[in-house]
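> tool_call: predict_assembly(chains=two)
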Amino acid sequence: MTQSIVVQVGQCGNQVGCRFWDLALREHASVNKKGIYDEALSSFFRNVDTRRSDGDNNDISGGKIRSLKARAVLIDMEEGVVNEILQGPLRDVFDSKQLITDVSGSGNNWAVGHKVYGSTYREEIVENLRKAAEHCDCLQCFFVIHSMGGGTGSGLGTFVLNVLEDEFPEVYRIVTSVYPSAEDDVITSPYNSVLAMRELTEHADCVLPIENQSLVDIVNKIKHMSHSGKLGAEIKQSSTIISGQGGVKGQEKPFDAMNNIVANMLLNLTSSARFEGSLNMDLNEITMNLVPFPNLHYLVSSLSPLYTLADVNVPSRRLDQMFSDAFSKDHQLIHSDPKHSLYLACALIVRGDVQVSDLRRNIERLKPSLPFVSWNQEGWKTGLCSVPPVGHSHSLLALANNTCVKPTFIELKDRFMKLYKKRAHLHHYLHVDGMEQSCFSEAFSSLSSLIEEYNQLDATKGLLMTDAQRLNIAV
Amino acid sequence: MYSVAFPSFCVHGPRHEEDIMDLVRREVEKCDRLGGFFNMMSMAGGTGSGMGTYITQCLRDTYPHSFILNQVTWPYGTGEVIVQNYNSVLTLSHLYQSSDAILVHENDTVHKICAQLMNIKQISFKDVNKVIAHQLGSVLQPAYTEGASEYNRNPLGDLMKSMVCHPEYKLLGLRNIPQMSETSLAYSVFTWPGLLKHLRQMLIANAKMEEGIDWQVRPPAGGLPPAEKGTHNKQLRFNTSLANLLILRGKDVQSADTGGFMDPALYTSWLPPGVASSTWRTPMSFNRYEKSATLVSNSQFLLKPLDGIVGKAWNMFASRAYVHQYTQFGISEEDFLDSFTALEQIIASYTHL
């Protein structure tokens, strides 16, 4: 079993991260009845004997759980969110040595996050990451969680990404990035996002883009379902999809439900690496199978089911519905329509009481309506994990490498240009040591090239591609 | 530890070689007489395909005179692993160099057996693996070779002797009948003539299982292979064999007449039939089947699936998709081309049987 380390940066990153740790603990608690520190737990948690005072060497492997510590590094240039975490129910899950904070924040300025705080805290960040890595027998992956629109998550978050590549080149970097919606209240979010995008394209192995608006829509849909009074339809309270208890301060805060969805996505992504199943799928299999070309590593995620009805017996029709839903545009975590764009590859991570025949049947059923690129007509990667999420009998996470991300990027590019044409707010950035106009133009052209790569693939959609000429062998 | 596709071959293989070969040596030392190595692996994933291939090579280097049989599971046609076609091409081309024979099980076929013959509703990998285990057991359990008075001491060696006469032809397939659910078994009666007739037609018509056999296909007259009509992609209607081994287990096995398998029309023209066909028998019943017949065959039956895999891998390679994942671990584009060439050679050889 391998271990992963979560690096949560900025306000959004830490709030989402917080929900993740809360749900992860609940998930393991419901499976691990005997309180034994097992391999599943060790993938994300250390087992620590807090009575001993020799700081770093108090990890206990195996045996009963003493005190679980998250394998995490928390970074924020404001203290608000991290302080709340440390006062809430999760305070014992984090070691004070895992935190890096400052006071004044980044002022929604990517340059401040990346250049100023980057250089100030580089040594401390590397130190912190090293310590966390040393506690792992076999570190496989860093999960970075951040937002794109602000200053810390976006700037310092991508700075950390660079550090991870420099210091731990063989460890995978999977980044969960929350993209700003069009009505974002941060005016400079297009600048921050485009500057960050370049870093993601160049230094991440895999990016899971998330859009706030999509999360809002999903949460509203769930609320609507529970209030619509359908006969017999009642959302299970123990379902982790929207239940926001625990984590920060007990009361459910406005973003909690949305952050829960992202946290669930991460739980499902890592489920096969944590629990057993008939078809295991490790994290490196995701980065391998879903990334046909190095820059095209943006994966659209969708979760189903989003709620569990109170029925105990789930007929297989309902199971098939779970598969269909994962491809509907209402279930995608960014605004996109994968069915009407081009699939380069698709992964299905299934949890719970589902067999390989169910999986095959549904792939066969859905394939005809999903356009795949000509050289990857059977571009499916599948994983079966036998442990379902809390409150569900089964669940599905679909990860699609699909050209439907293009509109999101084009919109971002347009919003960037609107500001950049007028040189609006540019001086805030250029004042920062190390920032030049070229940073902007290079980031812009990186995004343009990325969009162009997707364009070229889209151009092949629907064309009848002839098979490549085979090698001729003299007999 | 999980590994990524063929990097397993380049990275994990060498890293763990010493430990693995150490374990192997200890097992070998426990044997009175080493019959050979039976390696089981898949072709689609990373560890089985990459490590499996690397270890086979190590075994060949360390034990140059031992038989090596690789049991290889071919993935479902519709993806389990996206790069499965690349992994398959790399695996088969490398195995051909170090292994003596490659015994193939196709997931699609075994899945169909579970669905249509065993009547299993929700098929799990456990079910699939049980069928494969049954089929392997039907080959490797003790039996008497022709004219022998004792059980064969070296089934692996005998298998190789019968089946692999030419280094260009190493792909072996397996058919085992009858195969059915326990409930159906209670009500079924089988005769050797019936079983052998079905098995023969399954061989000729290239049927993967007992249902849906095309009885229209006949061996060509005069022992010459029929001219292939239509485009080169048209399904070969008649399956030409290089070698066949029948393994019969159960009641009255001595009375079973296997003459139908010695018909020269079944075989390629450059091999005398007496050499190409053999039979093992035992009166012991196998796995609750009163009578059980297995056919191990070196024939054209894998030609179409192999061609399919190579075609898809080639299309993907033409766009260079995923190639960067392999080059970063040491498999270059040249290596890919070498593997493709080797497989096209194998396809050509089997096509012209």
